[in-house]
C-alpha cells in the first residue's frame, strides 16, 4: 500500500507543539515524514565534502576610500563565485546578537500552551509559529527537523510580536534594516552601478524574520534541519549560534559555513541573481540535523517591494548586445508563489 504522509502530518500538526514537542515526548525514532528518500541518502554516502571556506568580509574599513573599494571587490568576488560570505565588524553590537539568539531560544522553550496561540501555517498571518509541515503538499519535499517563529512584513506593530522576545526582536530588526541598506549599496557598486541603485528598486523592502530552532535529533543521518534550497528573495542576513550545520553547495560539493563569533552570514537570493542577470549567484544551501541541540538561528529576508506591485527583471544598465537579458520580468509576489508550489530549481521558471 502506498504510504500517505498526511496522517502523520495531521498528528504532529494537531499537537501544535512542533518538532520540539516530538523530542519532548521522548521519541527515539523519527516519524517517516522526516526521512529523506532512499536515493538521497545513498547519494549522501558517495558525495565528497569540500574543504573550501566561505570568504570573510571585514566591514571595518568602509569609511575610507581605499577600504571601501577593497570591500566592494571582496563582495563582488564572493557574490560571483560563492553567493555567500561571512561579515565581521558589521556594526551590530554583540549584546544584540546574543540577545537575539537568547530571545529565539526563549520563545521556542516556553510553555507549549503559550506558543500554541501562534501556531499556524497561514502565510497571511504576521506572526506565526510552525513546523514546515505544509511543505509536504509540495512534490519532492520532506518535512525537516526544525520549528520556526516567522515575523513577516504583515505585522502591524510590535504588540503582535510574542512578549518573551518582543524587545530584542524589534531592536535586532532595526539594526538589520540599516545593515541591509549598507550591503545593498556595496552590492550596487559591485555591479558597477550607483550606490543607491538597488535601494531605489525597493530591494531593501519587505523584511521578514525567521527565528529557527533545531532540536537535537535522535536519527540525524536520516533527515535534514533545512532541506537544500535557494532563497526566493534579494538578500538574506543570517545570525547563527556556534553549533554549525549550515552548508553551501560549491562545485557540486557541500562546504561547511563555520560559525564565526559575532559574525553574520550573507547570501545572495534568487531575485538578486535575476536582476544581476546571473552576475551574482544564488547558491543552494541546507542545514544538517545533529544529535546535539538545539541549534538556533535567525534569518532576515529582504523580499522586495510589493505595494505598489513592482516588476523585476535584469537591470537595464547591465544589458547589452554581448550580455542579453536571461530572464523575463515578473512580480516578486508571483515569483514567491511559484517557488513554494514547485521543487527546487524555480529560478528557471522566468528564464528566457
Explain what you see.
With 352 residues, the protein is an alpha+beta fold. Helices cover 31% and strands 20% of the residues. It is built from ten helices and 15 strands. The chain has helices at 6-15, 18-24, 38-46, 65-81, 94-109, 112-116, 166-190, 197-200, 270-275, 332-341, and strands at 49-50, 56-58, 84-88, 127-131, 147-151, 207-214, 224-229, 235-240, 246-250, 253-256, 264-268, 285-288, 295-302, 311-312, 330-331. The strands form three sheets. The chain has an eight-stranded mixed β-sheet. Strands 1-10-9-12-7 form a five-stranded mixed β-sheet, with no helix packed on it. It has a two-stranded antiparallel sheet with strand order 14-15. Helix 5 (94-109) packs across helix 7 (166-190). The protein is globular. One of its GO terms (molecular function) is L-ascorbic acid binding.
What gross morphology would you assign?
globular
Please tell me how large the radius of gyration is. Answer: 20 Å
* Category from helices, strands and their pairing: alpha+beta
Portion in beta strands? 15-25%
Instruction: Give the tally of β-strands.
Output: 15
What can be said about the biggest beta sheet? 8 strands, mixed
Kindly report how far apart the N and C termini lie: 42 Å
What helical percentage do the residues reach?
25-40%
Spans of at least 5 consecutive residues whose pLDDT stays below 50 are none
Order of helices and strands: HHHEEHEHHEEHHEEEEEEHEEEEH
Mean pLDDT, all residues: 92
Keywords: Iron, Metal-binding, Oxidoreductase, Vitamin C
GO molecular function: 2-oxoglutarate-dependent dioxygenase activity; L-ascorbic acid binding; metal ion binding
Domain Fe2OG dioxygenase: 204-304
InterPro entries: DIOX_N, IPNS-like_FE2OG_OXY, IPNS-like_sf, Oxoglu/Fe-dep_dioxygenase_dom
